[in-house]
Amino acid sequence: MKTIISEKLARIIKNKKKLEEKLNIKITNRGKEVQIDGNPENEFTATQIIDALNFGFPFTAAISIKEEDNVLEILPIKEHTIKKDLERIRGRLIGKGGKTLQTLSKLTECYLELKDNEIGIIGQPENIEHATEAIIGIIRGAKHGNVYKGLEKKPKEMIYDLGLKEEKNSNNK
To answer: What is the value of pTM for the model shown?
Structure first.
């Protein structure tokens, strides 16, 4: 049984039935404490999903952790800058009307959410790696266009091949 302290308890209670069905767990709460009961693998997945909901991700993005084998990663802005003007850096990350976050999300195929001085990223591990590099570039002052261009050049294929895919052979007759 795992216990999580939740700031956004209403979002979890609202989606409690869906979470219990999809994750094969039992959720109970007392105050801001949320208790998860199930097998260890399901508890771990549920913890990540509840953390994503607490961070501010929509339910569809959070549940993709289970359904699409995505991962949640939280990137603190302060670790990647020496500047004290975090408001300006957050502004660079959000962009005019949220355009920068949207563009980064499309190019990296990840869900992105900004909360306080942290950025939450949900996606495939190799996509999260690209998104993290791009976000760190913007935090450190790189031009947006250069960051986008770098993302467009990155290969869209899986980086880690375990030898499970069949090789394409053009000599088949």
So the answer is: 0.83
Full set of structural domains in the chain with CATH: 2-67 (3.30.1370.10), 71-153 (3.30.1370.10)
Outline where 1-98 has alpha helix (H): 9-14, 16-23, 40-55, 59-67, 86-94
Assign 75 to helix, strand or coil. Answer: strand
Give the torsion sign (CA, 15, 22, 115, 100): negative
Residue 1 and residue 35 in contact, taking contact as beta carbons nearer than 8 Å: yes
Whole-number Å distance between alpha carbons of 121 and 68: 14
pLDDT digits (tens, 9 = 90+) for 29-42: 888 888 999 899 99
- Is the CB of residue 42 less than 8 Å from the CB of residue 25? yes
